Amino acid sequence: MSEQAEQTTTRRQRWLKIGLIVGAGVLILEVVLSAALFLAMKQTPVRFATVMSKLPTLSIRVLPFETLWTVARAGDLKVGDMAPDFRLQTYDKTSWVQLSSFRGDRPVVLIFGSYT
Predict the structure, then answer these.
(1) According to the 3-state scheme, what is the secondary structure of 70-81?
(2) Is 92 strand, coil or helix?
């Protein structure tokens, strides 16, 4: 093998090694950021909103956001289980409503969504 061919082979091996190191680094970074995002998703909505407000929009496209969200927020309620108690401020911010205050009366329908 000629000296030039050996240099080319050595150069290719060096670039392959660099590529593997960079690829492994990117993969590790993706796993760490995904784990951090998953842990943030397990927090209260207010804490999660704080984390999301600091993330660049691109992160939603790069990280497996929807998959992580589906697993992190799956919950453990089954059909027929009693809804956990919660307290919310009314839309006009004049009072608070607590779900447990409706227990024992008549059935309550909970509808969650965005109406903006």
Answers:
(1) HHHCCCCCCCCC
(2) coil
Whether this model's pTM surpasses 0.70:
no
Q: Strand 87-89 and strand 96-98: pairing?
A: antiparallel
- Tens digit of pLDDT per residue, the chain (116 long)? 677 777 788 889 999 999 999 999 999 999 999 999 999 999 988 899 898 899 888 888 889 999 998 899 887 888 888 888 899 898 899 999 999 888 886 888 878 777 66
How far apart are the C-alpha atoms of 8 and 39, rounded to whole Å? 46
φ, ψ of residue 45 to 5 degrees: the values are: -55, -35
Residue 82 DSSP code: P
Output the six-digit token pair for 70.
């589906």
Domains in the chain: boundaries = 3-76
Query: Distance (Å, rounded) from C-alpha 68 to C-alpha 51?
Result: 15
